[in-house]
Design a protein that fits this description.
The protein is of the alpha/beta class. The chain has one domain: 3-Layer(aba) Sandwich (UDP-N-acetylmuramoyl-L-alanine:D-glutamate ligase). Strand 5, helix 4 and strand 6 form a beta-alpha-beta unit. Helix 1 packs parallel to helix 7.
Length: 273
């Protein structure tokens, strides 16, 4: 029996809700074999990050090659790449990949507005990493930073996702959570020739920590299993929705998403714009 292999290159989240912990749980849920290269060790809770310790770039490279030299990787997902040395090293390695989906969660700006990587690393992400991607999954704040313009409404998001696709010559899934309406969570996915609106019921969960990591990991897992991009994106969005519905108490003041027993994909409405 062969099983698809997914590789995540990202930071560790001590609370288990985001980063490589979220990625590996998601890979397993979609029946893929999860591997990782850890870029940073963080101390964090669902409420915030208290410290970030970057892993030395040589060690990141050793982890990456330990996986790619011995396993047949079917999809790669990147998250927090921390600093310029790590970004540059990973881009050099990606230049050797052929025909493997690369899903890039830029992880530049958190939903809270906090910057998560160094300025020099941000420049390299834009100049080198995003053009290598099969799909990028920025949030609204990251898209505003990349395009250097405000995105005040859903009309602006549609124009932005199409512009990003043109600029980086890859598919883009723009997470529109900041502009979702009172009843629906809306994201936009653009390829070279088609733009889609993906809509699911809005969930007012006690915590949304790790939703971005989980979404991109779920897309990577579905691509690794041979699904087309829009099917993979819809399955991933459904998974995030159901995980939010299952949000559970894990401490006196801590809540976390929990994997669903069944991923009912019909909850996501896909519309071509």
């Amino acid at each position: 029996m062969n099983i698809p292999v997914c590789l995540t290159i990202a930071g560790s989240d001590s609370s288990g809700g985001a980063g490589i912990q979220a990625d590996l749980k998601t890979f397993a849920y979609f029946t893929t074999y999860g591997t990782c290269a850890v870029t940073a060790i963080t101390a964090q809770t669902p409420a915030g990050v208290s410290s970030i310790y970057p892993v030395p770039v040589d060690e990141v490279l050793l982890q990456y090659r330990a996986v790619t030299d011995t396993m047949t990787v079917n999809a790669v997902k990147t998250g927090m790449l921390t600093n310029a040395d790590i970004v540059e090293t990973i881009c050099d390695e990606f230049a050797e990949l052929r025909g493997i989906p690369i899903v890039v969660d830029p992880v530049i700006i958190a939903g809270s507005g906090d910057r998560l990587v160094e300025e020099e690393a941000t420049e390299l992400i834009l100049e080198r990493l995003l053009p290598l991607a099969t799909l990028i999954t920025p949030n609204v704040l990251e898209a505003e930073m990349i395009l250097d313009q405000p995105l005040p409404d859903n009309i602006a998001l549609v124009e932005a996702v199409q512009q990003l696709t043109d600029d980086f010559n890859c598919a883009v899934m723009l997470k529109g959570g900041h502009h979702s309406d009172k009843d629906s969570a809306i994201d936009y996915l653009a390829t070279n020739d088609t733009t889609y609106r993906l809509r699911s019921p809005l969930v007012n969960a006690r915590s949304s920590h790790g939703t971005g990591c989980t979404l991109s990991a779920a897309i990577a897992a579905n691509l690794a299993s041979g699904k087309d991009l829009i099917t993979a994106a819809a399955a991933a969005k459904a998974y995030v929705h159901h995980s939010l519905v299952n949000c559970s108490n894990v401490g006196p003041e801590a809540w976390a998403m929990v994997q669903p027993e069944v991923n009912e994909e019909s909850i996501v409405e896909v519309e071509i714009l």
